[in-house]
Amino acid sequence: MTKQMLKTLGLMTGSAMIALAPASAMAAPLSEAQATALLAKMNQLEQEIADLKSQLGNLQQTQQASAQATTSAIAETNAKLAATEAKVEQPAPVKIAFKGAPEIKGDAADGSGGWSFKPRGRMLYDFGTVSAPDSINDAGLGFANEARRIRLGASGSIPGGFGYKLEADFSGGTVEMTDAFLTYEDGGLTITAGQHNTFQGLEELSSSNDTSFIERAGYTDAFGFERRVGLSAQYGAGILLLQGGVFTDNITDLGDDVNDSIGFDLRAVAMPKFGGTQAHFGASYHYRDLGDAITAQRYRQRPAVHFTDTRFLNTGNIDNAESETSIGLEAAVISGRFHAAAETHWLTLNRNANFADPTFFGGSVEAGLFLTDDTRGYKEGVFKGVKVSNPIGKGGIGAWQINARYDRLDLTDSGFVGGTQDAYQASLIWTPVDYVRFMLSYARLDYSDAAIAAASGNDYSVDSLAGRFQISF
């Protein structure tokens, strides 16, 4: 009720009391005219009070309607705000996985989809001994140790199908770039530009983190297999994998006047599966023009370990060298705990004029068996690491594997005598958890026409025993 209405009602009530006061005081009868006037006055007051009550009721209804309208408007506004907030998606958190090291992946919701970053690294530390006939006095014999590989880098993906990898090796007191490349993927096609592996063969392309022995087969080092700067393409469709590329020199040699080579590599792989058995068959072809500055080429090899500089096989410099041509064959099988692999490689040094072109041979065959319920990894034409089924720390004993290999390297042909090597090797590998390995490797190497003469001549045997512990991520 408003103040004005209350004031009016009060005045009217006061008037009625004044009108009645004489009658009460005098207690005298009213005339008919007075009674009629008083009755009319009271009826008027009653009507005015009823009008005021009606106005008050209308006012209350108006206020109630206004309050309801206000409440409805507030509710409608809140609903609109809630709907707006629902439409605005909150940025999804960055995804972080752990694969030996944190792998960070962006999400499409916040515009970072397609981006990823993963630190990479490995530490391979070797130690062991090489023993030869006592008559051979060489500083490289006996016990030695080295940091075989210490690498750090990163890899990841970029929106649009691009990827990258950058990794350097810090062993030996120097820093050398190992991988430095950009990739583009579209379906089964991968294009790679920069410093990366050429397509020499199964064991060379498999990571050193995952090989069965401390060193790869002898021919891979003797024939100069290494990463080079180039442009390559890879296409995979079902069980088939095709690879090819054009390469120059290793990135550490670029700009050096004595390194201006160029060549190309081709590799084809079939990867059929027969039930739970993975098979692998491959062939490769390689050509390398040594360039104008290189006029001599040399092929040599260590005794199944890297921590010695002693080479019992060595062709010495072969003059008038122009180019190299090589062919490789490879095969492998993985069936449960068992695996086997074999590779051969023929390299011909093409010389100018009428000089003889020697062809050297290397090959190896190996077999391995897990003593635990594990299997050797394989993907896209190369061996991968084992995923330990019962690791240490979870009630298991890790993965235990034994391996045997025969490795032959023949560097004698066309009048060049670099010697031949027949190596009989065995290894024991313990992988307690993923990304950590301990290796023990033994090799008995029989040499013919060795580059280093013993008292008994150039045919003798050498033993090497080596161990390794490694961590990779």
Overall CATH class of the largest domain: Mainly Beta
Say what oligomer this is: single chain
Instruction: Give the termini separation.
Output: 82 Å
Main beta sheet, described? 16 strands, antiparallel, barrel
Structural class category: alpha+beta
What's the domain count?
A: 2
Radius of gyration: 45 Å
Tell me, what's the shape? elongated
Q: What is the correct CATH architecture of the largest domain?
A: Beta Barrel
**Largest sheet, spatial ordering of strands:** 3-4-5-6-7-8-9-10-12-17-18-19-22-23-24-25
SSE sequence, one letter per element:
HHEEEEEEEHHEEEEEEEEEEEEEEEEEE
Question: How many DSSP E strands?
Answer: 25
Unreliable stretches, pLDDT < 50, 5 or more residues?
A: 11-27
Number of helices: 4
Can you tell me the CATH superfamily of the largest domain?
Porin
CATH topology of the largest domain: Porin
Helix fraction?
10-25%
| Beta-strand content bin | over 45%
Mean pLDDT: 89
